[in-house]
Amino acid sequence: MIADKKLSTKGGGWLLEKPEQIFTPEDFDDTTRMIQETVRQFVEKEYRPVAEALEHGELEHNIPLLRKAGELGLLGVEVGEEYGGLDLPKTVSTVIAEALAGTGGFSVTYGVQTSIGLLPLVYWGTKEQKDKYLAKLVSGELIAAYCLTEPQSGSDAMGAKTRAELSADGKYYILNGTKMWISNAGFAHLFTVFAKTPEGLTAFLVERDTPGLRLGGEEKKMGIKASSTRQVFLEDVKVPVENVLGELGKGHKIAFNVLNVGRYKLGAGAIGGAKGALALSAKYAQERVAFGKPIAQFGLIQQKLAEMAARIFAGESAVYRTMGMIDQALSNLDKANAAEAVLAGIEEYAIEASIIKVLGSEVLDYVVDEGVQIHGGYGYSAEYEIERAYRDSRINRIFEGTNEINRLLIPGMLLRRAMKGELPLFDAAMKLQKELLEPSFEEPEDKELAQLEGLKKLALAVLGLAALKYGKQIEEEQEVLAVAADILIDVFAAESALLRARRLGGGVYAEMAALYLYQALDRAQAAALSILPRLAEGDDMRLMASAARRLTKHDPADLVALRRRIAQKVLEAGGYPQPKA
Predict the structure, then answer these.
(1) Structural domains in the chain?
(2) Is the dihedral of CA 448, 450, 451, 456 positive or negative?
(3) Radius of gyration of the chain (CA)
(4) What is the pTM of this model?
(5) Marked catalytic residue, from 98, 316, 348, 400
(6) 37 catalytically annotated
(7) Residue 155 above 70 pLDDT?
(8) pLDDT tens digits for range 290-322
Protein backbone atom coordinates (compact mmCIF):
# COMPACT_ATOMS: atom_id res chain seq x y z
CA MET A 1 0.00 0.00 0.00
CA ILE A 2 1.04 3.60 -0.59
CA ALA A 3 0.94 4.44 3.11
CA ASP A 4 3.70 1.90 3.75
CA LYS A 5 6.12 3.58 1.35
CA LYS A 6 8.23 6.70 1.69
CA LEU A 7 8.00 8.20 -1.78
CA SER A 8 9.35 11.46 -3.17
CA THR A 9 7.61 14.36 -1.43
CA LYS A 10 8.46 16.99 -4.04
CA GLY A 11 7.71 17.10 -7.74
CA GLY A 12 11.05 16.76 -9.51
CA GLY A 13 12.68 15.76 -6.23
CA TRP A 14 13.85 12.43 -7.67
CA LEU A 15 16.42 14.32 -9.76
CA LEU A 16 18.28 15.28 -6.59
CA GLU A 17 17.52 12.18 -4.52
CA LYS A 18 18.41 8.51 -4.56
CA PRO A 19 14.94 6.96 -4.23
CA GLU A 20 14.72 3.47 -2.85
CA GLN A 21 10.97 2.90 -3.02
CA ILE A 22 8.37 3.45 -5.70
CA PHE A 23 4.72 2.53 -6.06
CA THR A 24 4.06 -0.10 -8.75
CA PRO A 25 1.09 -2.09 -10.12
CA GLU A 26 2.15 -4.91 -7.81
CA ASP A 27 1.00 -2.68 -4.93
CA PHE A 28 -2.61 -2.37 -6.10
CA ASP A 29 -5.14 -3.11 -3.37
CA ASP A 30 -8.16 -5.39 -3.76
CA THR A 31 -10.52 -2.53 -4.64
CA THR A 32 -8.27 -1.38 -7.48
CA ARG A 33 -7.97 -4.90 -8.85
CA MET A 34 -11.72 -5.42 -8.62
CA ILE A 35 -12.39 -2.24 -10.61
CA GLN A 36 -9.72 -3.23 -13.12
CA GLU A 37 -11.59 -6.49 -13.69
CA THR A 38 -14.93 -4.67 -13.87
CA VAL A 39 -13.58 -2.50 -16.70
CA ARG A 40 -12.22 -5.53 -18.57
CA GLN A 41 -15.66 -7.16 -18.42
CA PHE A 42 -17.31 -3.90 -19.49
CA VAL A 43 -15.06 -3.77 -22.55
CA GLU A 44 -15.85 -7.36 -23.53
CA LYS A 45 -19.58 -7.39 -22.79
CA GLU A 46 -20.65 -3.83 -23.58
CA TYR A 47 -18.08 -2.30 -25.96
CA ARG A 48 -17.08 -5.21 -28.22
CA PRO A 49 -20.59 -5.89 -29.57
CA VAL A 50 -20.89 -2.30 -30.85
CA ALA A 51 -17.24 -1.61 -31.69
CA GLU A 52 -17.63 -1.94 -35.47
CA ALA A 53 -20.78 0.16 -35.52
CA LEU A 54 -19.01 2.92 -33.61
CA GLU A 55 -16.05 2.83 -35.99
CA HIS A 56 -18.43 3.25 -38.93
CA GLY A 57 -20.05 6.39 -37.61
CA GLU A 58 -22.88 5.13 -35.39
CA LEU A 59 -21.75 7.42 -32.60
CA GLU A 60 -25.04 7.21 -30.72
CA HIS A 61 -23.73 3.97 -29.16
CA ASN A 62 -21.51 6.14 -26.96
CA ILE A 63 -24.56 7.24 -25.00
CA PRO A 64 -25.71 3.85 -23.62
CA LEU A 65 -22.09 2.87 -23.09
CA LEU A 66 -21.55 5.91 -20.87
CA ARG A 67 -24.76 5.20 -18.98
CA LYS A 68 -23.73 1.58 -18.41
CA ALA A 69 -20.37 2.83 -17.17
CA GLY A 70 -22.30 5.11 -14.83
CA GLU A 71 -24.31 2.17 -13.48
CA LEU A 72 -21.04 0.37 -12.74
CA GLY A 73 -19.70 3.41 -10.86
CA LEU A 74 -16.98 4.07 -13.43
CA LEU A 75 -17.94 7.70 -14.10
CA GLY A 76 -17.71 8.83 -10.50
CA VAL A 77 -14.40 7.40 -9.33
CA GLU A 78 -13.10 10.89 -8.48
CA VAL A 79 -16.41 12.32 -7.24
CA GLY A 80 -17.63 12.47 -3.64
CA GLU A 81 -20.14 9.95 -2.36
CA GLU A 82 -22.75 12.67 -1.75
CA TYR A 83 -23.08 12.98 -5.54
CA GLY A 84 -23.14 9.28 -6.26
CA GLY A 85 -19.38 8.91 -6.72
CA LEU A 86 -16.84 6.52 -5.21
CA ASP A 87 -14.19 9.06 -4.10
CA LEU A 88 -11.30 6.64 -4.73
CA PRO A 89 -7.54 7.31 -5.11
CA LYS A 90 -6.26 8.77 -8.36
CA THR A 91 -4.46 5.52 -9.12
CA VAL A 92 -7.86 3.92 -9.76
CA SER A 93 -8.69 6.46 -12.45
CA THR A 94 -5.45 5.66 -14.27
CA VAL A 95 -6.10 1.93 -14.01
CA ILE A 96 -9.46 2.52 -15.70
CA ALA A 97 -7.82 4.66 -18.39
CA GLU A 98 -5.32 1.89 -19.08
CA ALA A 99 -7.99 -0.82 -19.21
CA LEU A 100 -10.15 1.20 -21.61
CA ALA A 101 -7.28 1.93 -24.01
CA GLY A 102 -8.33 -0.75 -26.48
CA THR A 103 -11.70 0.92 -27.03
CA GLY A 104 -10.16 3.66 -29.16
CA GLY A 105 -12.60 6.49 -29.70
CA PHE A 106 -14.84 5.44 -26.83
CA SER A 107 -11.93 5.86 -24.42
CA VAL A 108 -11.88 9.51 -25.55
CA THR A 109 -15.62 9.83 -24.88
CA TYR A 110 -15.14 8.34 -21.42
CA GLY A 111 -12.04 10.42 -20.72
CA VAL A 112 -13.77 13.69 -21.55
CA GLN A 113 -16.74 12.82 -19.36
CA THR A 114 -14.68 11.85 -16.31
CA SER A 115 -11.77 14.31 -16.55
CA ILE A 116 -12.14 17.63 -18.35
CA GLY A 117 -15.92 17.20 -18.42
CA LEU A 118 -16.84 16.89 -14.76
CA LEU A 119 -13.66 17.58 -12.76
CA PRO A 120 -13.87 21.36 -13.25
CA LEU A 121 -17.29 21.16 -11.63
CA VAL A 122 -15.93 18.94 -8.82
CA TYR A 123 -13.12 21.34 -7.95
CA TRP A 124 -14.53 24.77 -8.81
CA GLY A 125 -18.30 24.40 -8.84
CA THR A 126 -20.59 26.06 -6.32
CA LYS A 127 -22.86 23.89 -4.20
CA GLU A 128 -25.80 24.96 -6.37
CA GLN A 129 -23.96 24.01 -9.56
CA LYS A 130 -22.93 20.63 -8.17
CA ASP A 131 -26.45 19.91 -6.91
CA LYS A 132 -27.86 20.70 -10.34
CA TYR A 133 -25.43 18.78 -12.56
CA LEU A 134 -22.93 16.53 -10.80
CA ALA A 135 -25.01 13.47 -9.84
CA LYS A 136 -26.45 13.38 -13.37
CA LEU A 137 -22.97 13.48 -14.88
CA VAL A 138 -21.88 10.65 -12.58
CA SER A 139 -24.83 8.50 -13.65
CA GLY A 140 -24.38 9.27 -17.35
CA GLU A 141 -27.78 10.93 -17.60
CA LEU A 142 -25.91 14.07 -18.65
CA ILE A 143 -22.87 14.03 -20.93
CA ALA A 144 -20.18 16.70 -20.71
CA ALA A 145 -17.91 18.51 -23.16
CA TYR A 146 -15.06 20.96 -22.66
CA CYS A 147 -14.67 23.95 -24.97
CA LEU A 148 -11.23 25.53 -24.80
CA THR A 149 -9.56 25.19 -28.21
CA GLU A 150 -10.37 27.68 -30.97
CA PRO A 151 -9.48 27.82 -34.69
CA GLN A 152 -6.60 30.21 -33.95
CA SER A 153 -5.65 29.13 -30.41
CA GLY A 154 -4.69 25.55 -29.63
CA SER A 155 -1.74 25.27 -27.26
CA ASP A 156 -1.98 29.06 -26.78
CA ALA A 157 -5.11 28.84 -24.64
CA MET A 158 -4.72 32.41 -23.39
CA GLY A 159 -5.06 33.63 -26.97
CA ALA A 160 -8.78 32.74 -27.05
CA LYS A 161 -11.00 35.12 -29.02
CA THR A 162 -14.39 34.03 -27.66
CA ARG A 163 -15.92 36.91 -25.68
CA ALA A 164 -18.39 37.12 -22.80
CA GLU A 165 -20.07 40.45 -22.06
CA LEU A 166 -22.26 41.15 -19.05
CA SER A 167 -25.83 42.08 -19.98
CA ALA A 168 -27.16 45.54 -19.08
CA ASP A 169 -29.33 44.09 -16.29
CA GLY A 170 -26.37 42.10 -14.87
CA LYS A 171 -28.23 38.78 -15.05
CA TYR A 172 -26.45 37.15 -17.99
CA TYR A 173 -23.18 36.88 -19.82
CA ILE A 174 -23.55 36.98 -23.59
CA LEU A 175 -21.05 34.68 -25.32
CA ASN A 176 -19.83 34.97 -28.91
CA GLY A 177 -17.14 32.90 -30.59
CA THR A 178 -16.16 29.54 -32.07
CA LYS A 179 -14.69 26.48 -30.39
CA MET A 180 -12.97 23.72 -32.35
CA TRP A 181 -12.08 20.02 -31.94
CA ILE A 182 -14.65 19.63 -29.16
CA SER A 183 -14.88 15.97 -28.13
CA ASN A 184 -18.35 14.69 -27.13
CA ALA A 185 -19.94 17.75 -28.76
CA GLY A 186 -22.37 15.69 -30.86
CA PHE A 187 -24.21 14.31 -27.83
CA ALA A 188 -23.13 16.51 -24.89
CA HIS A 189 -25.71 18.18 -22.64
CA LEU A 190 -23.35 20.45 -20.68
CA PHE A 191 -20.45 22.43 -22.12
CA THR A 192 -17.68 24.04 -20.06
CA VAL A 193 -16.90 27.05 -22.25
CA PHE A 194 -13.92 29.38 -21.82
CA ALA A 195 -14.33 32.99 -22.87
CA LYS A 196 -12.65 36.35 -22.29
CA THR A 197 -14.30 38.78 -19.86
CA PRO A 198 -12.83 42.15 -18.79
CA GLU A 199 -11.30 40.28 -15.83
CA GLY A 200 -9.60 37.71 -18.10
CA LEU A 201 -10.25 34.13 -19.22
CA THR A 202 -13.37 32.79 -17.49
CA ALA A 203 -15.19 29.44 -17.52
CA PHE A 204 -18.96 29.11 -18.01
CA LEU A 205 -21.38 26.18 -17.73
CA VAL A 206 -23.54 26.26 -20.86
CA GLU A 207 -26.47 23.91 -21.43
CA ARG A 208 -26.93 22.39 -24.88
CA ASP A 209 -30.39 23.80 -25.55
CA THR A 210 -29.36 27.41 -24.83
CA PRO A 211 -30.45 29.57 -27.80
CA GLY A 212 -27.53 30.59 -29.97
CA LEU A 213 -25.43 27.48 -29.33
CA ARG A 214 -25.15 25.35 -32.46
CA LEU A 215 -22.83 22.60 -33.67
CA GLY A 216 -20.82 21.98 -36.81
CA GLY A 217 -20.78 18.62 -38.54
CA GLU A 218 -18.71 15.68 -37.36
CA GLU A 219 -15.04 16.09 -38.22
CA LYS A 220 -13.55 13.55 -40.64
CA LYS A 221 -10.68 12.27 -38.53
CA MET A 222 -7.68 10.01 -39.13
CA GLY A 223 -8.42 7.98 -36.01
CA ILE A 224 -10.56 7.82 -32.86
CA LYS A 225 -13.52 7.60 -35.24
CA ALA A 226 -15.80 6.25 -32.51
CA SER A 227 -15.69 9.62 -30.73
CA SER A 228 -17.68 12.73 -31.58
CA THR A 229 -15.61 15.79 -32.57
CA ARG A 230 -17.33 18.98 -33.73
CA GLN A 231 -17.10 22.73 -33.78
CA VAL A 232 -19.26 24.67 -31.33
CA PHE A 233 -20.59 28.04 -32.47
CA LEU A 234 -21.72 30.61 -29.92
CA GLU A 235 -23.88 33.44 -31.24
CA ASP A 236 -25.28 35.76 -28.55
CA VAL A 237 -25.58 32.83 -26.13
CA LYS A 238 -27.09 34.08 -22.86
CA VAL A 239 -25.59 32.31 -19.83
CA PRO A 240 -26.94 33.12 -16.35
CA VAL A 241 -24.34 34.72 -14.06
CA GLU A 242 -24.84 31.84 -11.63
CA ASN A 243 -23.29 29.57 -14.30
CA VAL A 244 -19.88 31.22 -14.06
CA LEU A 245 -17.56 28.39 -13.00
CA GLY A 246 -14.92 29.48 -10.49
CA GLU A 247 -13.77 33.09 -10.32
CA LEU A 248 -14.02 35.68 -13.06
CA GLY A 249 -10.69 35.96 -14.84
CA LYS A 250 -9.35 32.75 -13.26
CA GLY A 251 -10.31 30.37 -16.03
CA HIS A 252 -6.66 29.65 -16.78
CA LYS A 253 -6.39 27.94 -13.38
CA ILE A 254 -9.15 25.56 -14.38
CA ALA A 255 -7.75 24.97 -17.86
CA PHE A 256 -4.17 24.30 -16.80
CA ASN A 257 -4.88 22.28 -13.63
CA VAL A 258 -7.31 19.95 -15.38
CA LEU A 259 -4.68 19.38 -18.07
CA ASN A 260 -2.37 17.84 -15.45
CA VAL A 261 -5.02 15.22 -14.71
CA GLY A 262 -5.57 14.59 -18.40
CA ARG A 263 -1.85 14.13 -18.95
CA TYR A 264 -1.28 11.38 -16.43
CA LYS A 265 -4.42 9.57 -17.53
CA LEU A 266 -3.34 9.82 -21.15
CA GLY A 267 0.03 8.33 -20.24
CA ALA A 268 -1.70 5.38 -18.57
CA GLY A 269 -4.10 4.90 -21.47
CA ALA A 270 -1.23 4.96 -23.97
CA ILE A 271 0.59 2.23 -22.05
CA GLY A 272 -2.60 0.17 -22.06
CA GLY A 273 -2.90 0.64 -25.81
CA ALA A 274 0.73 -0.39 -26.28
CA LYS A 275 0.13 -3.61 -24.34
CA GLY A 276 -2.78 -4.42 -26.63
CA ALA A 277 -0.73 -3.74 -29.75
CA LEU A 278 2.13 -5.91 -28.48
CA ALA A 279 -0.31 -8.77 -27.85
CA LEU A 280 -1.62 -8.48 -31.44
CA SER A 281 1.93 -8.46 -32.76
CA ALA A 282 3.11 -11.43 -30.71
CA LYS A 283 0.07 -13.47 -31.76
CA TYR A 284 0.51 -12.65 -35.44
CA ALA A 285 4.26 -13.32 -35.33
CA GLN A 286 3.60 -16.85 -34.07
CA GLU A 287 0.87 -17.53 -36.63
CA ARG A 288 2.51 -16.06 -39.73
CA VAL A 289 4.78 -18.52 -41.51
CA ALA A 290 7.49 -17.40 -43.95
CA PHE A 291 10.39 -19.37 -45.39
CA GLY A 292 9.06 -22.45 -43.65
CA LYS A 293 8.79 -21.20 -40.08
CA PRO A 294 6.87 -18.67 -37.91
CA ILE A 295 8.29 -15.18 -38.28
CA ALA A 296 8.51 -15.06 -34.47
CA GLN A 297 11.67 -17.15 -34.87
CA PHE A 298 13.44 -14.46 -36.89
CA GLY A 299 15.93 -12.25 -35.10
CA LEU A 300 14.67 -8.93 -36.44
CA ILE A 301 11.10 -9.74 -35.37
CA GLN A 302 12.33 -10.73 -31.92
CA GLN A 303 14.28 -7.46 -31.73
CA LYS A 304 11.07 -5.52 -32.33
CA LEU A 305 9.08 -7.49 -29.75
CA ALA A 306 11.79 -7.02 -27.11
CA GLU A 307 12.07 -3.28 -27.71
CA MET A 308 8.31 -2.91 -27.51
CA ALA A 309 8.16 -4.79 -24.20
CA ALA A 310 11.09 -2.92 -22.62
CA ARG A 311 9.59 0.47 -23.44
CA ILE A 312 6.19 -0.60 -22.12
CA PHE A 313 7.79 -1.79 -18.87
CA ALA A 314 9.58 1.53 -18.39
CA GLY A 315 6.45 3.50 -19.27
CA GLU A 316 4.18 1.48 -16.99
CA SER A 317 6.68 1.81 -14.14
CA ALA A 318 6.86 5.59 -14.59
CA VAL A 319 3.07 5.97 -14.74
CA TYR A 320 2.33 4.18 -11.49
CA ARG A 321 5.35 5.62 -9.72
CA THR A 322 3.81 9.02 -10.45
CA MET A 323 0.37 7.94 -9.27
CA GLY A 324 1.84 6.64 -6.04
CA MET A 325 3.47 10.01 -5.34
CA ILE A 326 0.25 11.88 -6.13
CA ASP A 327 -1.94 9.62 -3.99
CA GLN A 328 0.51 9.81 -1.10
CA ALA A 329 0.44 13.61 -1.34
CA LEU A 330 -3.37 13.47 -1.21
CA SER A 331 -3.58 10.97 1.65
CA ASN A 332 -3.60 13.63 4.39
CA LEU A 333 -5.86 16.28 2.93
CA ASP A 334 -7.08 19.38 4.68
CA LYS A 335 -10.76 18.38 4.73
CA ALA A 336 -11.86 22.00 5.20
CA ASN A 337 -10.32 22.92 1.85
CA ALA A 338 -10.36 19.53 0.16
CA ALA A 339 -10.70 20.75 -3.45
CA GLU A 340 -7.83 23.21 -3.12
CA ALA A 341 -5.69 20.57 -1.39
CA VAL A 342 -6.34 18.01 -4.15
CA LEU A 343 -5.41 20.50 -6.84
CA ALA A 344 -2.26 21.51 -4.96
CA GLY A 345 -1.27 17.87 -4.59
CA ILE A 346 -1.76 17.16 -8.29
CA GLU A 347 -0.01 20.37 -9.33
CA GLU A 348 3.00 19.39 -7.21
CA TYR A 349 3.60 16.58 -9.69
CA ALA A 350 2.86 18.51 -12.88
CA ILE A 351 6.42 17.78 -14.08
CA GLU A 352 5.85 14.04 -13.78
CA ALA A 353 2.41 14.33 -15.43
CA SER A 354 4.05 15.94 -18.47
CA ILE A 355 6.81 13.32 -18.46
CA ILE A 356 4.45 10.36 -18.58
CA LYS A 357 2.25 12.07 -21.17
CA VAL A 358 5.21 12.40 -23.55
CA LEU A 359 6.70 9.03 -22.61
CA GLY A 360 3.44 7.09 -22.85
CA SER A 361 2.30 8.61 -26.14
CA GLU A 362 5.69 8.01 -27.78
CA VAL A 363 5.97 4.46 -26.47
CA LEU A 364 2.54 3.79 -27.96
CA ASP A 365 3.47 5.33 -31.31
CA TYR A 366 6.62 3.21 -31.43
CA VAL A 367 4.77 0.01 -30.53
CA VAL A 368 1.93 0.41 -33.03
CA ASP A 369 4.35 1.39 -35.79
CA GLU A 370 6.45 -1.72 -35.20
CA GLY A 371 3.24 -3.69 -34.86
CA VAL A 372 2.18 -2.71 -38.38
CA GLN A 373 5.65 -3.64 -39.62
CA ILE A 374 5.43 -7.09 -38.05
CA HIS A 375 2.07 -7.59 -39.74
CA GLY A 376 3.54 -6.55 -43.08
CA GLY A 377 0.94 -5.82 -45.76
CA TYR A 378 -1.82 -7.10 -43.48
CA GLY A 379 -0.97 -4.35 -41.02
CA TYR A 380 -2.13 -1.86 -43.63
CA SER A 381 -5.49 -3.56 -43.97
CA ALA A 382 -8.52 -2.36 -42.01
CA GLU A 383 -9.41 -6.02 -41.45
CA TYR A 384 -6.64 -6.25 -38.88
CA GLU A 385 -6.90 -4.57 -35.48
CA ILE A 386 -3.37 -3.18 -35.61
CA GLU A 387 -4.44 -0.82 -38.42
CA ARG A 388 -6.95 0.95 -36.16
CA ALA A 389 -4.50 0.96 -33.26
CA TYR A 390 -1.97 2.72 -35.50
CA ARG A 391 -4.46 5.42 -36.54
CA ASP A 392 -5.91 5.90 -33.07
CA SER A 393 -2.51 6.33 -31.45
CA ARG A 394 -1.45 9.42 -33.38
CA ILE A 395 -3.74 11.89 -31.60
CA ASN A 396 -2.06 11.27 -28.24
CA ARG A 397 0.99 13.34 -29.11
CA ILE A 398 -1.37 16.28 -29.73
CA PHE A 399 -3.96 15.83 -26.95
CA GLU A 400 -3.48 17.51 -23.53
CA GLY A 401 -0.84 19.91 -24.84
CA THR A 402 1.38 18.79 -27.71
CA ASN A 403 4.50 16.83 -26.86
CA GLU A 404 6.51 19.86 -27.93
CA ILE A 405 4.70 22.04 -25.38
CA ASN A 406 5.18 19.41 -22.69
CA ARG A 407 8.88 19.14 -23.53
CA LEU A 408 9.20 22.86 -22.82
CA LEU A 409 7.16 22.56 -19.63
CA ILE A 410 9.26 19.81 -18.03
CA PRO A 411 12.56 21.72 -17.66
CA GLY A 412 10.69 25.03 -17.46
CA MET A 413 8.78 23.94 -14.35
CA LEU A 414 11.95 22.55 -12.79
CA LEU A 415 13.77 25.85 -13.29
CA ARG A 416 10.84 27.87 -11.93
CA ARG A 417 10.76 25.71 -8.80
CA ALA A 418 14.46 26.24 -8.38
CA MET A 419 14.06 30.01 -8.70
CA LYS A 420 11.32 29.95 -6.03
CA GLY A 421 13.57 27.99 -3.67
CA GLU A 422 11.32 24.91 -3.82
CA LEU A 423 14.08 22.68 -5.22
CA PRO A 424 17.81 23.19 -4.49
CA LEU A 425 18.56 22.71 -8.17
CA PHE A 426 21.11 25.49 -8.56
CA ASP A 427 23.04 24.43 -5.45
CA ALA A 428 23.28 20.92 -6.86
CA ALA A 429 24.38 22.27 -10.25
CA MET A 430 27.14 24.38 -8.65
CA LYS A 431 28.35 21.40 -6.62
CA LEU A 432 28.37 19.32 -9.79
CA GLN A 433 30.56 21.86 -11.60
CA LYS A 434 33.26 21.37 -8.97
CA GLU A 435 32.88 17.61 -9.14
CA LEU A 436 33.33 17.58 -12.90
CA LEU A 437 36.68 19.34 -12.51
CA GLU A 438 37.91 16.63 -10.14
CA PRO A 439 36.31 13.41 -11.42
CA SER A 440 36.59 10.12 -9.56
CA PHE A 441 37.65 7.08 -11.55
CA GLU A 442 36.79 4.48 -8.92
CA GLU A 443 34.70 1.58 -10.14
CA PRO A 444 31.23 1.74 -8.51
CA GLU A 445 29.84 -1.27 -6.67
CA ASP A 446 26.47 -0.92 -8.37
CA LYS A 447 27.03 -0.01 -11.99
CA GLU A 448 23.39 0.49 -12.94
CA LEU A 449 22.68 2.88 -10.07
CA ALA A 450 25.90 4.71 -10.89
CA GLN A 451 24.79 5.03 -14.51
CA LEU A 452 21.47 6.46 -13.38
CA GLU A 453 23.31 8.92 -11.19
CA GLY A 454 25.39 9.90 -14.20
CA LEU A 455 22.24 10.57 -16.22
CA LYS A 456 20.91 12.79 -13.44
CA LYS A 457 24.17 14.70 -13.28
CA LEU A 458 24.11 15.22 -17.05
CA ALA A 459 20.57 16.59 -16.86
CA LEU A 460 21.65 18.92 -14.05
CA ALA A 461 24.71 20.05 -16.00
CA VAL A 462 22.67 20.89 -19.10
CA LEU A 463 20.03 22.75 -17.07
CA GLY A 464 22.65 24.61 -15.05
CA LEU A 465 24.63 25.70 -18.11
CA ALA A 466 21.49 26.80 -19.94
CA ALA A 467 20.18 28.78 -16.97
CA LEU A 468 23.56 30.42 -16.41
CA LYS A 469 23.99 31.48 -20.03
CA TYR A 470 20.44 32.53 -20.91
CA GLY A 471 18.78 33.48 -17.62
CA LYS A 472 15.19 34.56 -18.20
CA GLN A 473 15.70 34.24 -21.97
CA ILE A 474 15.95 30.46 -21.61
CA GLU A 475 12.35 30.15 -22.86
CA GLU A 476 13.56 31.24 -26.30
CA GLU A 477 16.02 28.32 -26.42
CA GLN A 478 13.42 25.66 -27.19
CA GLU A 479 15.87 23.21 -28.75
CA VAL A 480 18.02 23.27 -25.61
CA LEU A 481 14.99 22.81 -23.35
CA ALA A 482 13.80 19.87 -25.46
CA VAL A 483 17.16 18.12 -25.06
CA ALA A 484 17.01 18.66 -21.30
CA ALA A 485 13.46 17.28 -21.30
CA ASP A 486 14.45 14.15 -23.20
CA ILE A 487 17.24 13.39 -20.73
CA LEU A 488 14.89 14.00 -17.78
CA ILE A 489 12.23 11.74 -19.29
CA ASP A 490 14.76 8.95 -19.77
CA VAL A 491 16.11 9.42 -16.23
CA PHE A 492 12.66 9.09 -14.69
CA ALA A 493 11.66 6.13 -16.86
CA ALA A 494 14.95 4.25 -16.50
CA GLU A 495 15.04 4.73 -12.73
CA SER A 496 11.40 3.67 -12.39
CA ALA A 497 12.05 0.51 -14.41
CA LEU A 498 15.23 -0.38 -12.53
CA LEU A 499 13.77 0.10 -9.03
CA ARG A 500 10.69 -1.92 -9.96
CA ALA A 501 12.72 -4.70 -11.60
CA ARG A 502 14.79 -5.10 -8.45
CA ARG A 503 11.64 -5.43 -6.36
CA LEU A 504 10.43 -8.10 -8.78
CA GLY A 505 13.57 -10.13 -8.24
CA GLY A 506 15.25 -9.62 -11.59
CA GLY A 507 14.58 -12.03 -14.45
CA VAL A 508 13.06 -10.62 -17.61
CA TYR A 509 12.17 -7.42 -15.73
CA ALA A 510 15.81 -6.74 -14.92
CA GLU A 511 16.65 -7.41 -18.56
CA MET A 512 13.98 -4.99 -19.82
CA ALA A 513 15.18 -2.34 -17.38
CA ALA A 514 18.79 -2.91 -18.43
CA LEU A 515 17.93 -2.60 -22.12
CA TYR A 516 16.09 0.66 -21.54
CA LEU A 517 18.90 2.09 -19.40
CA TYR A 518 21.61 1.10 -21.90
CA GLN A 519 19.84 2.93 -24.70
CA ALA A 520 18.93 5.91 -22.48
CA LEU A 521 22.64 6.45 -21.84
CA ASP A 522 23.38 6.49 -25.57
CA ARG A 523 20.47 8.83 -26.29
CA ALA A 524 21.48 11.22 -23.51
CA GLN A 525 25.10 11.42 -24.64
CA ALA A 526 24.15 12.15 -28.26
CA ALA A 527 21.54 14.72 -27.22
CA ALA A 528 23.87 16.54 -24.82
CA LEU A 529 26.71 16.70 -27.35
CA SER A 530 24.31 18.13 -29.92
CA ILE A 531 23.61 21.26 -27.84
CA LEU A 532 26.76 21.75 -25.72
CA PRO A 533 28.35 24.03 -28.39
CA ARG A 534 25.29 26.23 -27.88
CA LEU A 535 25.97 26.48 -24.14
CA ALA A 536 29.76 26.77 -23.93
CA GLU A 537 32.82 27.55 -26.05
CA GLY A 538 36.46 26.51 -26.34
CA ASP A 539 37.97 24.65 -23.42
CA ASP A 540 34.75 24.96 -21.40
CA MET A 541 32.82 23.23 -24.14
CA ARG A 542 35.45 20.51 -24.52
CA LEU A 543 35.44 19.95 -20.75
CA MET A 544 31.66 19.57 -20.73
CA ALA A 545 31.72 17.26 -23.76
CA SER A 546 34.26 15.05 -21.99
CA ALA A 547 32.05 15.09 -18.88
CA ALA A 548 29.00 14.13 -20.93
CA ARG A 549 30.84 11.11 -22.31
CA ARG A 550 32.07 10.14 -18.85
CA LEU A 551 28.65 10.50 -17.22
CA THR A 552 27.05 8.24 -19.83
CA LYS A 553 29.85 5.70 -20.00
CA HIS A 554 28.95 2.03 -20.12
CA ASP A 555 30.54 -1.20 -21.28
CA PRO A 556 29.36 -2.75 -24.55
CA ALA A 557 26.68 -5.39 -24.05
CA ASP A 558 25.36 -8.25 -26.15
CA LEU A 559 22.04 -6.60 -26.94
CA VAL A 560 21.18 -9.30 -29.47
CA ALA A 561 21.17 -11.99 -26.77
CA LEU A 562 19.38 -9.65 -24.35
CA ARG A 563 16.60 -8.89 -26.83
CA ARG A 564 16.21 -12.55 -27.78
CA ARG A 565 15.67 -13.52 -24.15
CA ILE A 566 13.11 -10.77 -23.64
CA ALA A 567 11.34 -11.71 -26.89
CA GLN A 568 11.08 -15.31 -25.76
CA LYS A 569 9.24 -14.20 -22.62
CA VAL A 570 6.94 -12.01 -24.73
CA LEU A 571 6.09 -14.95 -26.98
CA GLU A 572 5.52 -17.26 -24.02
CA ALA A 573 3.17 -14.67 -22.46
CA GLY A 574 1.40 -13.95 -25.75
CA GLY A 575 2.21 -10.28 -25.30
CA TYR A 576 3.54 -8.08 -22.52
CA PRO A 577 4.89 -10.28 -19.68
CA GLN A 578 2.84 -8.57 -16.98
CA PRO A 579 4.41 -9.06 -13.55
CA LYS A 580 2.32 -11.00 -11.07
CA ALA A 581 1.23 -9.22 -7.90
Answers:
(1) 25-143 (1.10.540.10), 145-250 (2.40.110.10), 251-403 (1.20.140.10), 419-573 (1.20.140.10)
(2) positive
(3) 24
(4) 0.96
(5) 400
(6) no
(7) no
(8) 999 999 999 999 999 999 999 999 999 999 999
